[in-house]
Amino acid sequence: MSDLSPGLRARLLLQKHGFQAAHALGQNFLLDEGLLSHLIDLSGVGAEDDVLEIGPGAGVMTYLLAQRVRSVAAVEVDRRLEPVLGGLLEGCENVRVVFADALKADLSELAAPGARVVANLPYYITADVVTRLLLHGPGFASIAVMVQKEAAERMTSLPGQKTWCHLAALVRYFGQPHILEEIPPEAFDPSPHVTSAFLRIDLYGERPVRAQNEALFLRVLSAAFAMRRKTLFNNLRAAFSLHADAAREALSRAELPEQVRGEAVPLEGLARLADALDEILP
Ligand code: SAM
């Protein structure tokens, strides 16, 4: 069996273990080594890199990554895949598979600062996973993920665009996102009902937008998008239990109009607002 390609071996292992893909877990596998090698090229990982993979599935991407990088840690929630991954990755000494929920696992225990993420994500938790990688990772160098095309478009949007949202703002604060390629449904097994896109976020070593207190800035960012139809003034009051005068004072110090909506304010303005709040809050 070791003479066979990893894609074919994965198919045989899935069959042997009677595996049925679970739609609820976003199980749309990529088994074509040609496409997966191309995606790994696009991800920009190299021989010196340690990679975190979310959701290895049958493990073909994991296997190919293991041939090209220093180490791979893969987090998979579905224990039914244990014999498949065990079979395919036998002998891959630089791979560690952990069976856990990626939304709960301690990412800093799985990856060190400077590690890179490469994954064909389960789409039902795209936003939560990417948010977690950005906020609770060890400080990744890059995050290259397959997501639904619309999610990729949202994550790469800019202030002023309709799709600008909390996740897009977080992505832009931490790095620069690029949509690298669209992938049709037929590339997956089973095929999803949507077109996908492979997206890479190159994370800044030094972030261009800075606030004195990053934790406070991230709370302001979240408040800015809390209730979209409300003004930033109202969202700020609600999020920080602020008296109207204090909210007015913070906006004025940040040189922001009182009627502005959070989604209309660029990151620099929100950073000024966080700095103003830092001085005003007790
Ligand atoms: N990487 C594989 C591939 O390309 O063939 C599988 C990708 S499939 C789209 C998503 C994988 O994520 C599935 O194996 C699924 O079981 C796993 N998964 C779903 N929810 C998860 C979670 N919360 N934590 C970790 N893995 C999860």
Describe this structure in words.
The protein has helices at 6-16, 33-43, 60-68, 82-88, 107-110, 126-136, 149-155, 166-174, 214-224, 232-240, 244-253, 267-280; strands at 50-54, 71-76, 95-99, 116-120, 142-148, 175-183, 196-203. β1 (50-54), α3 (60-68) and β2 form a beta-alpha-beta unit. α6 (126-136) packs parallel to α8, α9 (214-224) crosses α12 (267-280) and α11 (244-253) crosses α12 (267-280). Strands 3-2-1-4-5-7-6 form a seven-stranded mixed sheet, sandwiched between helices. It starts with 5 loop residues before the first helix and ends with a helix. It has 282 residues and is an alpha/beta fold. It is built from twelve helices and seven strands. Bound molecules: S-adenosylmethionine. S-adenosylmethionine binds next to β2.
Task: Provide the descriptors you would attach to this structure in a database record.
elongated; 40% helix; 16% strand; binds S-adenosylmethionine; 7 strands
What are the SSEs and their pairings?
Blueprint: H1 6-16, H2 33-43, E1 50-54, H3 60-68, E2 71-76, H4 82-88, E3 95-99, H5 107-110, E4 116-120, H6 126-136, E5 142-148, H7 149-155, H8 166-174, E6 175-183, E7 196-203, H9 214-224, H10 232-240, H11 244-253, H12 267-280
Parallel strand pairs: 1-2, 1-4, 2-3, 4-5
Antiparallel strand pairs: 5-7, 6-7
Helix pairs in contact: 1-4, 2-3, 6-8, 9-10, 9-12, 10-11, 11-12
The protein binds S-adenosylmethionine.
Helix-strand pattern: HHEHEHEHEHEHHEEHHHH
Structural class: alpha/beta
**Straight-line distance between termini:** 67 Å
Largest sheet descriptor = 7 strands, mixed
